[in-house]
Amino acid sequence: MNIASGTPVQKGVSLSDINPKDYIVELMAEKFNGYTCVAIKGKNGIEEGVLVFHDGSIVSSDYEYYRYNKRIVAEEGLLRTLNAFLASKGVMDSFSLSPYQVQLIMTLNDDCNLKNEITNSASLPFPNAFSYSYEEALVETKRETKEYAKDVLLKKYGLSRMAGPKVTRAILLESADDENKRIDRMIKKKGRGE
Predict the structure, then answer these.
(1) 57-101: pLDDT as tens digits
(2) 79 touches 40 (CB < 8 A)
(3) Does 2 fall in a domain?
(4) Range of the domain at 152
(5) What is the three-class DSSP state of 7?
(6) Is the pLDDT score of 16 beyond 80?
(7) SS3 184
(8) Residues 33-50 pLDDT 10s
(9) Are 174 and 165 in contact (CB under 8 A)?
(10) What's the whole-number mean pLDDT along residues 118-122?
(11) Which residue in 82, 120, 142, 185 has a CA-CA distance of 20 to 30 Å to 65?
């Protein structure tokens, strides 16, 4: 996300030292202009989420999985960022900005803007507990995409016919067994002098 540095309000605060929901609700009540970042260690690497506030409303969000080089923005980014606030290990930073700077962030990061800004705590989709399910779903999608991509590339370059049948362990074992039987028959024939 393209974002201005801003004036630090909180820096390097451990997530275990705050009540994240209360903190965000307080920023909303104070009509905060700026952003808050949360960085955590997921199962497979560092993840970072950003919430942008304009006059206390959450207007934009971005979430990044650095290991997978994957960004999730807008509403989906918001859900992941709020989830990250509930992680047992992580840090949070908050920076204040002028209303003009917030508008600039929203303009430069149009893809991150929420369709409906979050204006009060009642509409804040805060989860009850931290979950690795978002990261697990991303890993599963990556796996499916890789397998699909291989088939697409083979087809694109006309190599799908040359790829042959899909080889599995069972097929290899069956092939080896057939080869052993063929060799045994040859040995028996030679032993009989045929």
Answers:
(1) 999 999 999 888 889 999 999 999 999 999 988 999 999 999 999
(2) no
(3) no
(4) 140-191
(5) strand
(6) yes
(7) helix
(8) 999 999 999 888 899 999
(9) no
(10) 86
(11) 120
Question: CA 10, 33, 53 angle in degrees (round to 5)?
Answer: 90
Mean pLDDT, rounded, of the chain: 85
28 and 117, same domain (yes or no)? yes
Is 134 a domain residue?
no
Token pair in block for residue 78: 């918001």
DSSP per-residue codes, 65-114: ETTTTEEEEHHHHHHHHHHHTT-SSEEEEEEE--HHHHHHHHHHTGGGEE
Residue 157 lies in a domain: yes
H helical segments located in the chain: 20-29, 74-84, 99-108, 133-156, 169-191
Structure tokens belonging to residue 44: 């497979």
How far apart are the C-alpha atoms of 83 and 62, rounded to whole Å?
13
CB 61 within 8 A of CB 112: yes
Q: State the Cα–Cα distance between residues 192 and 190, nearest whole angstrom.
A: 5
Single out the residue in 85, 107, 129 at which a domain terminates: 129
**CA 87/CA 77 separation, integer angstroms:** 16
Give yes or no: residues 86 and 27 share one domain.
yes
> In this structure, what token pair is assigned to residue 184?
């045994």
Dist CA 52 CA 77 (whole Å): 11
Please check whether residues 90 and 163 belong to one and the same domain.
no
Q: What token pair was written down for 131? A: 């979950």
Cα–Cα distance list, 117 to 23, 120, 193 (Å): 18, 9, 89
Calculate the dihedral angle through the C-alpha atoms of 105, 88, 41, 9, rounding to the nearest 10 degrees.
Answer: 30
